[in-house]
Amino acid sequence: MPFSLDHTVFFGRTWEESTGMYGLSEEGMRGKRILDCPGGPDAMVIEGINRGLDIVACDPQYSQTPEQLEALGLKEISETMISFQKDPNVAADQKQADAYEKLKLAALSSFLEAFRGHPDRFITGSLPSLPFEDDTFDLSLSGHLLFVYSSLEQGGLMSHDELDLDFHIAAVRELVRVSRQVRIFPTWSVNKPPRRQAYVEPVMEAMAAEGHEVSLLPSQWVEMEYKEFNDFVCITKAS
Ligand SMILES: C[S@@+](CC[C@H](N)C(=O)[O-])C[C@H]1O[C@@H](n2cnc3c(N)ncnc32)[C@H](O)[C@@H]1O
Fold first, then answer.
1. Nearest 5 degrees, angle CA 192-CA 195-CA 201?
2. Which residue has its alpha carbon closest to ligand 1 atom 21?
3. If you take atom 17 of ligand 1, which residue's CA is the nearest one?
4. Does the residue 78 lie in any domain?
5. pLDDT tens sequence across 79-129
């Protein structure tokens, strides 16, 4: 049986992981209004603030208190690592798994620093309906929700088909509504052998049919063995 999850995990990446995922440099982000959606417990906001960037995050979980999110984040990291390591489809050697867990804990700690110190940067909201006006942002970053939480049949991780193709198209359309450019990562399956997520192509086709410029661009990302599809979907809104 492939590895599966029954919910979207409150699990986040560090600044280096995130900028690598989206093929971004600090200079490339400067002067832009940036949305991280879903932000989850990633490190983008505090690291962005420290670099003078204009960045906010949006996630359904942000209605909770910092204490609740700390407890949730720790529980999700610990439970996900245990289930990963129990499953021969996705298990890594223990040294790699420990290093991976350390990165998740570092991201959670950075997230909590930002969530406590800069609550105005965290907006509660859910795709496919975001609480922002059209074109509020220059750049929206969407990591580890779209594609990866589609069902197992579609190359995703979910044991059920809640985030179906209609959801994906509506969610990406919404990100494009609020932003000039959208970057989505990852595009491949977590279960082995890695393959392109089934919804990548239809989502790209739907956005191209709506007149947007759509491409797969290289990521600077290596996670364990998943090197085959080292890219992200980039959508630039038709002007
Ligand atoms: C694995 S985290 C990704 C965090 C971060 N972007 C990263 O790549 O590390 C997935 C997040 O998706 C959020 N989420 C679940 N359903 C959502 C929805 N409909 N709209 C926006 N975010 C959602 C969850 O609350 C969770 O924090």
1. 155
2. 126
3. 126
4. yes
5. 988 887 887 777 778 888 888 899 999 999 999 999 999 999 999 999 999
How many Å lie between the centroid of ligand 1 and the Cα of residue 192? 23
> In which residue are the tokens 């999700």 written?
76
By residue range, what is the domain housing residue 49?
15-236
**Coil, helix or strand at residue 73:** helix
- Structure confidence at residue 159 (pLDDT): 86
Q: How confident is the model at residue 225 (pLDDT cuts 50, 70, 90)?
A: low
Identify the CATH number of the domain in which residue 128 sits.
Answer: 3.40.50.150
Tell how far the Cα of 28 is from the centroid of ligand 1, in angstroms: 24
Mean pLDDT, the chain, rounded, equals 92
The answer to whether 28 touches 19, Cβ cutoff 8 Å, is no
Instruction: Check if 76 has its Cβ closer than 6 Å to any atom of ligand 1.
Output: no
Q: Counting atoms of ligand 1 from 1, which one is nearest the CA of 59?
A: 22
